[in-house]
Amino acid sequence: MHLTLYFREYCSLCHAMRDALRPYQARHGFTLDVIDVDDDPALVARFDELVPVLMHGETEICHYHLDTVRLDAVLAEIR
C-alpha cells in the first residue's frame, strides 16, 4: 500500500496530519511519500491552499485534517 501526502514545510496542519498518520502507518504498513508542493509549480496549481492533502493514487482521502473514518475505509478497501 502506498499513500501520498501533499505538504508544505511551513504548514502546521501539514505537520499535524503527517504526525497523525504515523500510528496508522505502523499498524497498516503502508508507505508514505511526503511531497512539498512548493517544489513543483504544477502541484502548487493543483493543491495550493488545500494542503495537506492525503491521496491514494489519484483518489483524495482527505485534506486539511486527517479523516480517520475515510482513511480506515480506504485502507480496508485496498488490502
Model description:
With 79 residues, the chain is α+β, with helices and mostly antiparallel strands. It has a single domain (2-78), classed as Glutaredoxin, CATH 3.40.30.10. The chain contains three helices and four strands; from the N terminus they run E-H-E-H-E-E-H. The chain has a four-stranded mixed β-sheet with strand order 2-1-3-4, covered by helices on one side. 19% of the residues are buried. The mean pLDDT is 95.
Gist of the model:
With 79 residues, this protein is an alpha+beta fold. The chain has one domain (2-78): Glutaredoxin (3-Layer(aba) Sandwich), CATH 3.40.30.10. The protein is built from three helices and four strands, in the order E-H-E-H-E-E-H.
The Rg value, from CA coordinates, equals 12 Å
User: What is the name of the CATH architecture?
Assistant: 3-Layer(aba) Sandwich
Share of residues in strands = 25-35%
- Globular, elongated, flat, extended or rod-shaped: what is the shape? globular
> What percent of residues adopt helix (DSSP H or I)?
40-55%
For the record, what CATH class applies?
Alpha Beta
If you average the pLDDT, what whole number results? Answer: 95
Sketch the major β-sheet: 4 strands, mixed
- Poorly predicted parts: none
Straight-line distance between termini: 8 Å
Reported by name, the CATH topology is Glutaredoxin
Q: Specify the CATH homologous superfamily.
A: Glutaredoxin
Domain module count: 1
Number of helices: 3
Strand order across the biggest sheet?
A: 2-1-3-4
What class would the helix/strand composition place it in?
alpha+beta
Order of helices and strands: EHEHEEH
Using DSSP, what is the number of strands? Answer: 4
